[in-house]
Specification:
alpha+beta, 7 strands
Length: 150
């Protein structure tokens, strides 16, 4: 049976670095700062408050290119084919396929190349895993990462 990690959280203002790089993200603070579950880049889905599912490439971790091991651990979801304001909206995020571990890049250009590859991989994964097949998210405290089965 397929497993997912699910996070429910409110989109917070960040440093807008993703937007500057051309990949805006919805940032959700995580309760678990130890990084014991789910760090890396993921393909998955985001459900908006109105129930609309949107495919996403999702990073979970400390943003090592800019903050090293000392950064605040958070979830950053880049919603594919989406433009709009999500600040203060509560989202549900399904992490479906771990694409790669987080890593630090030597330059913004190297990071942008990796992000483009991540988006291509996430696009392929969501095409094969439609939102209709997602397991129920259930209820949980904001920012808590939980494992659910399909």
């Amino acid at each position: 049976m397929p497993e997912y990690f699910v996070v429910r959280g409110t989109v917070e203002h960040g440093d807008e670095r993703g937007r500057e790089l051309g990949f805006p993200t919805a940032n959700i603070a995580l309760r678990d700062q130890s990084g014991s579950v789910g760090d890396g880049v993921w393909a998955g889905w985001v459900r908006r408050a109105d129930g609309t599912p949107i495919p996403a490439a999702i990073s979970v971790g400390r943003r090592p290119t800019y903050y090293g091991a000392d950064g605040y651990r958070l979830l950053e979801a880049h919603l594919l084919d989406f433009a709009g304001d999500l600040y203060d909206e509560t989202l549900v995020v399904w992490l479906g396929a771990h694409l790669r571990d987080q890593q630090a890049y030597a330059s913004a250009e190297d990071l942008i190349t990796a992000l483009k590859n991540d988006i291509a991989a996430a696009t392929q994964w969501v095409a094969n895993h439609p939102a209709e097949t997602l397991p129920a998210a259930g209820e949980s405290p904001l920012g808590e990462v939980r494992r659910v089965e399909a």
